[in-house]
Backbone:
């Protein structure tokens, strides 16, 4: 399967998958519990060739390097670097948008089978 389906007892459902660009997992809600607020994506209910809409945009901050971490410990100011991972998931492929800050910017790749 290319996406993991996590059904919570509250009634919400989360899809989770590995992002090779960020080397971590991303997730979206495809169902919310009654009264639970937040965005909901549509999904074709296919774990092998998922299509999820609309696009997913993950904003974050690049993890500190060991050197930067040591500087923070010493009380020095370290500039953080904002990151963006923005993509469409279509038929089991991840199509990364041009505003991604990582190396797979603009590329389309097959999702990894788990
Ligand atoms: Zn990513």
Residues:
């Amino acid at each position: 399967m290319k996406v993991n389906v996590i059904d919570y007892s509250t009634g919400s459902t989360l899809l989770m998958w590995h992002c090779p660009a960020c080397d971590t997992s991303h997730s979206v809600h495809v169902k919310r519990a009654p009264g639970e607020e937040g965005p909901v994506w549509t999904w074709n209910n296919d774990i092998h060739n998922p299509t999820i809409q609309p696009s997913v945009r993950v904003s974050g901050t690049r993890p500190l390097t060991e050197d930067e971490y040591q500087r923070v410990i010493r009380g020095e100011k370290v500039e953080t670097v904002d990151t963006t991972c923005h993509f469409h998931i279509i038929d089991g492929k991840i199509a990364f948008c041009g505003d991604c800050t990582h190396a797979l910017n603009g590329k389309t790749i097959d999702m990894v089978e788990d």
